[in-house]
Amino acid sequence: MTPAPVLMRSWCFSYCAAPGAWAEFWRPIPRPGWHDLFALTKSGEAILEGDLFPFMSHLQFFKDVLALPRGRVRAAT
Amino acid sequence: MSGFIEPIIGRYVHVEIENEVNRIYFEESGSGIPLVCLHTAGSDARQWRYLLADETFAKHFRIIAFDMPWHGKSNPPAGWTGDEYRLTTARYTETIRAFCSALSLDRPVVMGCSIGGRIVLNLAIAHAAEFRALIGLEAADFQAPWYDTSWLNRPDVHGGEVCAALVSGLIAPQSPDASRRETLWAYKQSGPGVFKGDLYFYRVDGDLRGRVAAVDTDRCPLFLLTGEYDFSCTPADTLRTAASIKGAQVVIMEQLGHFPMSENPAQFRRYIAPVLDWIVQTARIPTQPSAG
């Protein structure tokens, strides 16, 4: 994990959400609508863009990796 | 317990759909009021195994769940030439009615989930007199799409893996790991392009906005139950749909997502038991002559 911003970083695809959205996503039991990467993109709380092939062809992997902090970070206040 | 045999019996029935005989696999248990259960898109009737094995429900209902053609153990019909599978409102409606007719079911209850919930609304609009009650799980007249279905069937992405991974987020976080995995397993086993073909009905051909107000719940009671974690067919989608149907009964189910009967059967039972009990109690009331 590298804190943003990083100048002129190349990227293939990105999944971006505000810190508050990640805090909700990483609650031990996330609330409805905050519990899945696509729940967040559907509601506009996150943005998925770029070349989605690597993401979609390994979708469960990326879902599992990004959910790893669940219950291990301080809950949103 | 090794050696335990479940009370569920599976058989095949030949059903004519769109002028062709389809060999349809169905499972059943119990006796009484026929209760026909419809699986979600890209899955099969295994989703209903907990309901089928419920001894209390089986005392009052002949519980039946069938695999749609192209799904589970119901093969595509013999005349299929390998062209792209696409489910339409007309074909889906005919399939259900023809299946019920083939088994000579007397005014069955139909309970469907997701695409099954959507088609239940169409049955309520167009064929209410044929059914004793209709139950839509995760049902709405329309819901906003949240992904591009072209990812579901392409040569460079594993269809089973991507279908399962997409719908995995529709399962509530409280659902047990074993039933979560079992729910997703059916998606991993689905035939190529079948989930996408089912969603043609869901996304393109089956938009019921503006039509559900015609539902007459005096003729056929309608129950709509939606899980709070379903962000595909959201509680708001179901409530909006119900608001335009006079007499529709709505329940938002806590700690459940898009697959209530398979992702957390015990939690789902808390919500479906009162509905089924109401249907049983209503069936005991002698039919009154119509006032005209």
Can you walk through the features of this model?
The complex is a heterodimer of chains A (77) and B (292). Chain A is built from 4 helices and 2 strands. Chain A has helices spanning 19-25, 37-43, 53-57, 59-67, and strands at residues 13-17, 46-50. In chain A, strands 1-2 form a two-stranded antiparallel sheet. In chain B, helix 4 links the parallel strand 5 (109-113) and strand 6. Chain B has an 8-stranded mixed beta sheet with strand order 1-2-4-3-5-6-7-8, sandwiched between helices. Chain B has 292 residues and is an alpha/beta fold. Chain B is globular, with a radius of gyration of 18 Å. Chain B starts with 8 loop residues before the first strand and ends in an 8-residue tail after the last helix. The A-B interface holds A 29-30, 32-33, 35-39, 41-43, 52-53, 56-57, 59-60, 63 and B 144, 146-147, 151, 156-158, 161-162, 164-166, 168-170, 172-174, 228-229, 231.
Features:
heterodimer, A: 77 residues, alpha+beta, two-stranded antiparallel sheet, 2 strands, 36% helix, B: 292 residues, alpha/beta, 8-stranded mixed sheet, 18% strand, globular
Mean pLDDT of chain B: 96
Query: Given the C-alpha coordinates, what overall shape of chain A results?
Result: globular
User: Biggest β-sheet of chain B: count, sense, barrel?
Assistant: 8 strands, mixed
For the biggest β-sheet of chain B, the strand order reads 1-2-4-3-5-6-7-8
Estimated helix fraction of chain A: 25-40%
Gap from first CA to last CA of chain A? 23 Å
Structural class by sheet pairing and helices of chain B: alpha/beta
Low-confidence stretches of chain A: none
The residue fraction in helices of chain B comes out at 25-40%
Query: How many distinct helices of chain B?
Result: 10
Biggest interface, chains and residues, is: A-B, 19 and 21 residues
Using only C-alpha atoms, the radius of gyration of chain B works out to: 18 Å
Largest sheet composition of chain A: 2 strands, antiparallel
Distance between the termini of chain B: 57 Å
Low-pLDDT stretches of chain B are none
